[in-house]
Amino acid sequence: MTAPRRQPQRLPLKVRYFRTADQIPGIPRDAAENLDLVSQKYAFRANDYYLDLIDWNDPDDPIRRLVIPDAAELEDWGMLDASDEAANTVVQGVQHKYGDTALVLTAATCASYCRYCFRKRLFMRHNEEVARDLSPAFAYVAHHREITDILLTGGDPLVLSTDRLSPIVKRFAAMPHVGTIRIGSKIPAFNPQRIVDDEDLHDLIEETVAAGTAVYLMAHFDHPRELTEMAQNAIWAVQDAGAHVVNQCPLIRGVNDDDMVLTELFETATALGMPQYYLFQGRPTAGNAPFEVPLVESFEIFDRARRRCSGLSRRVRFAMSHASGKIEVVGVNEQHIFLRYHRAKDPDLESRVIVCKRDDEAYWFDDLEAVG
Ligand code: SF4
After folding, report:
1. CATH of the domain at 112
2. Neighbours of 305 (CB within 10 A)
3. What is the CA(86)–ligand 1 centre distance, in A?
4. Residue 224 CA, ligand 1 centroid: distance in Å
5. Which atom of ligand 1 is nearest to the CA of 122?
6. Any idea what DSSP says for residue 282?
């Protein structure tokens, strides 16, 4: 791993978006056929900046795997809303699962679509989960003074122009009980130039922080190859404006199911001042069969990676975002899997430790048998 350094910014560059295979220069025929087939069911979108990171000569290239459809996505597997997010939806566009935190779904698109996305239902027709009019969301949060933390999510909030994002951030930041605004985004990986060039975004962060509300960018890098010079510039741009940055991502078959890759990701993220916050077990989401890894195997990959890391990088937790809460996998031995509620929807479950029978075929909490 090379130590990252600040680089001069490049000249502004506008990315071009592609939705069909025939628009993508150099795409191999098999990839084009899969794209045409799968995109009839699950949306495809990518841009030239990100596609340029792919080595088309390598059929197993992790960046290719992340955005180019795999025919096995069409296997009958999983559910569209695997964590039952619908049950936490309190008004259109707002999920309120844990007392202090509200998720506000502000955008129904992303700069590109990750093939393993657990919210791919948002990109399908007839989805009503994203707020078109945020008035009910503002009213709900204003009324619920226990909410101290707003997570802007989607889709990707940074696909919105800063002109559209700014009043949203300002309105929540003006509520005295809101101390933190988080922006969950994969734009730093998919289109970092959008952040580097946007001085209005830097000003918005600076003004929000100066007025007393912390801003966190929850970045989503899955593989060290996404941490290009431009991506690093994007991270530094928001840090310079006063935002904190952390990284989180799922463990994905063929992308980062390799402890050496994860070690490099965690250590590089720490060196960039963007420590890894969570590594997630993939949710059993419809369309995601080719990307999922059994729970024990995932934990063992994670644990090997973490043991190689410095103390700062070891703060990462490996967790399942289950309908009942965020369940951390804390250990596995020959007989058992040890779990602990890091966050729980039911306050009585907070911090509860659960011991389950080891099952190397299980993918998710619901597949496990609790024994203590
Ligand atoms: S950026 Fe996030 S919401 Fe968008 S496709 Fe990827 S995982 Fe899904």
Report:
1. 3.20.20.70
2. 27
3. 18
4. 18
5. 3
6. P
What's the gap in Å between 152 CA and the centre of ligand 1?
13
Domain-embedded: residue 356: yes
The model's pLDDT over 79-129, given as tens digits with 9 standing for 90+, comes to 999 999 999 999 999 999 999 999 999 999 999 999 999 999 999 877 788
Q: What are the structure tokens assigned to 351, written together?
A: 């911090």
Closest protein CA for atom 1 of ligand 1: 186
**Structural domain includes residue 4:** no
Q: Hey, which of 42, 103, 186 would you mutate to test ligand 1's pocket, going by the most ligand atoms within 8 Å of its Cβ? A: 186
How many Cα neighbours within 13 Å face the side chain of 56?
12
Is residue 315 classed as helix, strand or coil in its secondary structure?
A: helix
Is 227 inside a domain boundary?
A: yes
287: alpha, beta or left, given left = phi > 0 and alpha = psi -120 to 50? left
- pLDDT, mean of residues 180-198: 97
Return the structure tokens found at 88.
């936490």
Q: Is residue 158 domain-resident?
A: yes
Percent of the chain with pLDDT over 70: 97
Contacts of 40 (CB under 8 A, 6+ apart): none
The number of distinct structural domains making up the chain is 1
- Which of the listed residues 117, 127, 130, 251 should we mutate to test ligand 1's pocket, taking the one with most ligand atoms within 8 A of CB? 117
CA-based nearest residue to 302, from 269, 262, 337, 265? 262
Mean pLDDT of all residues belonging to the chain: 95
Gap from CA of 355 to ligand 1 centroid (Å): 32
Domain that holds residue 296: 17-367
- Rounded-to-integer distance, Cα 365 and Cα 113, Å: 26
pTM metric for this prediction: 0.95
